[in-house]
Amino acid sequence: MSTFETPVRPDVQVPRGDILAALRAPPPSAVRAATPPHRPTKAQELEIEQERQAQALRELDALRLVFRGAHHRRGAFDEEEAQPEEEAGWADLSVEPTWRLRERMKTVSVALVLCLNIGTDPPDAVAASPRARRECWLEPFAGPSRQKALETIGAALQAQYERWQSRARYRQLLDPTADELRRLCAALRRSARSDRVLVHLNGHGVPRPTANGEVWVFNKNYTQYIPLSVYELRAVVQAPAVFVLDCSGAGILLPHFRAAMPRPNDDDEKPQTPLKDDCIVLAPCAADETLPSDPRLPADLFTACLTTPISVALRDFVRRHPDSARGRLDEETVEAGVPGRLGDRKTPLGELNWIFTAVTDTIAWNVLPARLFQRLFREDLLLASLFRNFLLAERVFRRHGRTPATIPALPPTADHPLWAAWDLAAEGCLARLASAQNASPVKQPSETPEKAPEPSPKETEDQPRVHHRSLRVLARVPPAPPEPTEPSPFFEEQLTAFEVWLRFGAGAVAKPEQLPVVLQVLLSQAHRVRALVLLRRFLELGPRAVDVALCVGIFPYVLKLLQSPAPELRRPLVAIWAAILAFDGSCRSDLARDGAREAFVAHLTYLSREDDSGENTEQKRLACFILATVCRGEPSARDACLTKRLDAVLLDLLRNDEGTLTTSHLRRWLLLCSGALVDGAAPEATQDARGPLKEEVIRLALADADPCCRACALDTVGSMLCVDEDVTECASILKTACRDGSAFVRREAALLIHALSKKGHQTALKALTEEGQGESKGDDCYESIFRILQLLCKDPFAPTAETARSVLDAITQDTPMTREGARQWASKRFGLSLRSTSVAAAFSQSSTSLEELLEMDPLSSDGEMRLYRRHRNRYCLREASASRRRAKEALAAREQEKRGAPSTQVLRFAQTKTFENVGAEMTSVMRFHPFESVLAVVDERSGVSLWDFNDGAAVARWNNGDLRTTSIEWVNAHASSLLLAGDVDGVVRVWGGLGLEQGPYEERSVRVVSAFRAIDVVSFQKSAGLVCSWSAREAHLYCAGDANSLVSWDLERECSVRAMATDTDACATVVTTLPLQPHRVTLGFADGQLKVFDLRDRATRPCQSYAHEHSSWIVHADAHKHSPSELCSGCVAGDLKFWDARIAGVSNRTLDVQNSAMTALSAHAEAPLLASGSHNQFVKFMLRDGDQLNIVRYHDGVFGQRIGPVASLAFHPTKLVAAAGSTDAVVGIYAAS
Fold it and tell me: What GO biological process, any one, is recorded here (predicted)?
């Protein structure tokens, strides 16, 4: 191992004396030059002013770049993270929490190794004079001896590190030997155990590192330089470790730090994987570069940047902008010090440090991958401070032509636009400082600072000069209390920029640049409320936004703020915590300490005494969700909430709720919170909470207007069941729930049976499955529950039936089953409903004006679709008016012809298009979509197909089930259309995902949205299956057919609201409502009867019968929209009868339309037109007064094929277009001409 033989230290005796006495000595008075100041000319003043304005404009332009959210360009460094992670949008539900650190690590041991050898330069040092000499802002020749100066510098370096981590164990090693360095590192590793060790190596007094990966130390006599291998140093320090290398050519060591380290006691010489994650290195320059030697800079500039960044940053700013504040700023002013303390943000120095932290955090956040940012800036307090300050070091060193480097590598940040915001804040602070010193003599702009004479080499070695200003700073004399100053507008401007992004840029894929600044603003009382409100709005964008915010580091801040008594913070904090828990439920364990859970109970208690305004209702919902999440499965949380009487608060809120659909979101979480409060608790522990609260929950389970509330109530009933509970009450609840119109409620009913089996009733239920019957308690309750479970196993909605079968298997075979029901669904929907202020949420709400649509970003895909539908619907309504006008003109022309006057206004229907429904043998039912050029066709095998009747192309095909489909209706046609289909077994299926606005050949994901049993099928001699009629005005579906009753279903509430007996022995064949009286429903029967039912609760005559004048099957019955008092009906015999819809009696007039059997009849909703079809293969178009327009017997074309026996007819609701389906696969489209 080679050594330098040159003596490195002369034999100099160190004089005795206390250096502290010299440090405390008062400084000599400042000596100023006697030269009178030179006054600049007017031209010079004008030039200075123009330069100042130009500089101000440059700073302002850079600041505007930041405010506009100019995203810093990523490079190839980012690898996987460089791809746009928000591509799926902020509301991407597939986002998994990645913000929690796997291991929380901290730096507990720090080795400060100083190889200065004061007074002797290393052989490879550049002998420049003057050059940088200061170490830790001290002159090494300022003390009475060089040994004392070395000790003072070591103490100063430790003090600088203690500002960032005061709890670490610091050990100084001054001009060490190789053995001393090894022993120190080994001792620090033993004491640190698995925590991180930091080694700070200052090599200004030794040669530069070698290409072999060696650093230099001393021998025992300080006569030789001894090399020490980096591998040996790493082997002693081990991992995890941080190495700060403050020496020239430090970059030459980086490959050796990246190399793999052999494991202890490992004889295998195969290469190891580099432990990059365990070894972190910070170096000031590349392998072929030296440290800056400018005499105005400290020799340890890199260390100064890492440990005293504010001093370096201010000096760097003054050096780059000498004309700032009209020349009243210089390094002497900066060196005198900015008043205040680093830890006090109310002082100028503390505020500058606060702004610097926000700026560097934001720069790192925007240029680093998320994982690397968390590791370097959130894992360890000292490590985060070093890397935060390293960004400043890179900026300063690159201006001096040096290239700092790190392991892991960081992308360039010296030119990030946010540095302009820091320069502006620094300039404002220094300008205020210069203005405060106006009372003292101030240098003129033309003055040049007087430079102190450089010491001669002899003075440097034997008679060192003392820089009293630096010693005075080091003496830590208590500063005078700072005067109150105006705060910097930096944070307020950044909050404004973030608010602008939320308003206009939330739809972009890039994350907001200002988010780390918002995190820092949470520390300020002046802007804390505004920051929390903006943070809440950001989290409402969706799960990805929550994950981004948690990765930035908001969690400990919002957790600590829960302890604040300030009432204005409570509301945004509740919304923020609801978003966090909706995204990551594991955070509830963090609420167990410091009384955080009780804060939400107190907030809900306070809200229960407030009025039910929209904001208060939302706050109650958020608080209930948080408490439900916290209490579920946590006995300590449950007991704490019961102690605070949460059960009484929930009961009071449930009783005082209006019970409407507008407050259903609140009731859901009131119910789920009630269930979580008693779930799993002993009955005696929650006896007071179970009694009245359970009665209220059962009432809501049976009669609530919202189906989701009914499902949540059933879940809560399952949580409240006890072992010795009487099952009679449970059986009555299940009897009602299994007939519910909501598949969600029926699924929760099956899960309630599973909960009942887990509470001690499994044996009795299992006996029924094995024997077909068994011992029962009460009035055969177990047998009733078992029959309900069997009924649910055959539910028409597949997921519900699957759940019921899983419950049955769990009871009979004792297989485990996870109860995923209302609580999981509600938690997922809760995360979506949080997006109350986002653009996507606005489109999910109903709107009535075009102006409101324009406010909801019409340039987005959802907004474009909403605008299209609005214009489409308006166009169809105008077309309906045109149809009525054309029909009136045809009627007038018909009257003229009757009077013998010639007329050219002749209305006829001609075939425009035919298409063949391949695979079908007969068309049974057809319905036109009111706003799209789509015709729904059902064949005899329950095959449903959608056709574009303009082009004759199939849009979609699927099968409705195994049984024959007898009725279809378009639901919600004005928006996202649904198709409702009824079968002969009384089941209604609602189909969604039709995508009617798409092209004819685009794929669609048609699926069952819901399904329920609308009627109880009864056997009749003639069967009509299920016939129904949809009333869009009331959102009711009226169902009849092979049943003894007319059932009215409220599809908004998903429940049956009225059932009235038909009192007849024939099945219903037609159901229709009167246009102006939707509560009056007319039924036609297979035996020719007509009855009208009044569905109002207080109707004096709920059922009236018309005169039995029809002799056979009623084919169609309808009341014209513009003649609502006239009801038209037709039967198979071929006669049409017109009735007074206001009074049930005899018919007003009768028309014999055709002699053959009438197999189909349809009436136009807007125009007075009728169409009838016959098995004799013709379609007859006529007016409502009986005048015939024309008869269609043949298809148009060259061959003129005869149409088949007509099976169904349908008019378009608004256009003068009709469709005819026959007993073959051909469907004809006819339009008025």
Answer: TOR signaling
Q: Per DSSP, what are the bridge partners of residue 913?
A: 1229
**DSSP codes of every residue in 389-412:** HHHHHHHHHHHTT---EEES----
Tokens matching residue 423 = 């320069």
Q: What one-character DSSP code corresponds to residue 892?
A: H
The model's confidence at residue 459, banded by pLDDT at 50, 70 and 90, is very low
Cα(385)–Cα(362) distance, integer angstroms: 13
Distances (CA, A) of 670 to 566, 586, 651, 1178: 26, 22, 9, 62
Asked if 530 and 495 count as a contact pair (C-beta separation under 8 A), the reply is yes
Residues 774-792: what's their mean pLDDT?
Answer: 73
Look-up of token digits 């902020």:
90
What does the pLDDT read at residue 985? 92
Tokens of 1152: 């014999």
The answer to pTM > 0.70 is yes
Q: Where are the alpha helices (DSSP H) in 173-227?
A: 178-192
d(CA 602, CA 641): 10
Instruction: Report the alpha-carbon distance of residue 138 to residue 41 in Å, rounded.
Output: 40
State the Cα–Cα distance between residues 407 and 239, nearest whole angstrom. 14
List the structure tokens of 953.
């192309």
**Helix axis angle, 42-67 to 490-500, nearest 10°:** 40
Distance (Å, whole) CA 829 – CA 826: 5
- 78 is written with which tokens? 């980012």
Contact yes or no for 522/532 (Cβ under 8 A): yes
Q: How many CA atoms lie within 13 A of 279 on its CB side?
A: 21
User: What is the spatial distance between Cα 544 and Cα 547, in angstroms, rounded to a whole number?
Assistant: 5
Cβ atoms within 10 Å of 269's Cβ, excluding its own: 7
Instruction: Give 1212's pLDDT tier (boundaries 50, 70, 90).
Output: very high
**Are the CB atoms for 675 and 702 separated by under 8 Å?**
no
Tokens of 207: 């040669």
Residue 745 has pLDDT above 80, yes or no: yes
What six digits make up the tokens of 774? 């068994």
* Rounded average pLDDT over 931-951: 91
CA 316 – CA 858 distance, rounded (Å): 49
pLDDT digits (tens, 9 = 90+) for 565-578: 888 889 999 999 99
pLDDT average, residue stretch 146-160: 90
User: Backbone phi, then psi, for 759, in 5-degree steps?
Assistant: -105, 30
The rounded distance, in Å, linking the Cα atoms of 253 and 282 is 11
List C-alpha distances in Å: 590 to 129, 782, 925.
60, 43, 60
Long-range (24+ apart) CB contacts under 8 A made by 527-533 are 527/491, 527/492, 527/495, 528/561, 528/569, 529/568, 529/569, 529/572, 530/495, 531/495, 532/561, 532/569, 532/572, 532/573, 532/576, 533/572
CA dihedral 510, 516, 521, 527 (to 10 degrees): 0
User: pLDDT-derived band of residue 275, with 50, 70 and 90 as boundaries?
Assistant: very low
Task: Give the contacts of 25 (CB within 8 A, at least 6 positions apart).
Answer: 468
Nearby residues of 472 by Cβ (< 8 Å), 6 or more positions away: 23, 27
Task: Give the integer Cα–Cα distance in Å for 726 and 720.
Answer: 12
Greater model confidence, 387 or 331: 387
Q: Give the single-character DSSP code of 1202.
A: B
**In 3D, which of 1181, 1204, 1178 has the Cα closest to residue 1193?**
1178
Do the Cβ atoms of 510 and 86 come closer than 8 Å?
A: yes
Report yes or no: 714 and 745 within 8 Å, Cβ to Cβ.
Answer: yes
Q: What is the C-alpha separation between 635 and 637, in angstroms, rounded?
A: 5
User: Coil, strand, or helix at residue 958?
Assistant: strand
Angle (nearest 5°) at CA 743 between 737 and 745:
40
Is residue 1150 classed as helix, strand or coil in its secondary structure?
strand
Q: Where are the beta strands (DSSP E) in 899-1014?
A: 909-916, 923-928, 934-939, 943-948, 953-959, 965-971, 978-983, 987-992, 1007-1013
Copy the structure tokens of residue 444: 């003129």
Rounded mean pLDDT of 1017-1030?
A: 91
- 8 A C-beta contact, residue 534 and residue 495: yes
Query: For the chain, what is the mean pLDDT?
Result: 78
Report the DSSP beta bridge partners of residue 280: 242
